[in-house]
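Supplementary Methods, section 5.1.

A reviewer requested that the exact input to the structure prediction be made available. We therefore reproduce it here, unchanged from the version used in the analyses.
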Amino acid sequence: METAKYKRIMLKLSGEALAGENGFGIDFNVTKRIAEEIKELVELGVEIGAVVGGGNIWRGRSGQGMDRTTADYMGMLATCINALALQDSLENIGVNTRVQTAIEMKEVAEPFIRRRAMRHLEKGRVVIFAAGTGNPYFSTDTTAALRAAEIEADAILLAKKVDGVYDKDPNKYSDAKKYDKLSYIQVLEQGLQVMDSTATSLCMDNNIPIIVFGLDEGGNIKKAILGEQIGTLVSK
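The structure derived from this sequence is encoded token-by-token as follows.
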């Protein structure tokens, strides 16, 4: 019988990942595939929190000429749209979920309450955290690190469009070197694009390992949970 290496995890999905090949909006074939992979983990007894970005709809820094705070709040609302889409895909295949938002919108989701989130996880529900931290100037990477610390997650699974961490952009440079393991300090000192520096520092301070892997290949989330060598591990 397969045994999960981690009991409770935070799954961070980029908004771009939900767009699939379209590059914009939501590809429901992608959300369905992700939901099916999450269901497998739930059946293994893994407790799952998730944070979804909003880059497939809107990024705060996209608002050129806009007030930065306004643009960031628009980005937070985009994450709520993605969270509801993922929730729907999960509920359609029988996975119990809750969406909790950092900005109150009680008609569509619960407000973020740490103890309530912990209770949902203990009951086997997938909790999707939306609207970032509720504050402008903080990314969804920082949200994932913060919520992971708050729910006492064993690890952050960082699902991206690339299959790990490289010393330079592998889409631009054929000689880009992939790292199997990195320390938090190496990531910060070398300015590697894993998570932003605030999120990386938060993970370092709370000793939360980060597993960076590609989402395009099916089954990768489960492989990461089972402790298989996949992508890049960032730890002490």
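The chain has eight helices and eleven strands. These observations are discussed further in the main text.
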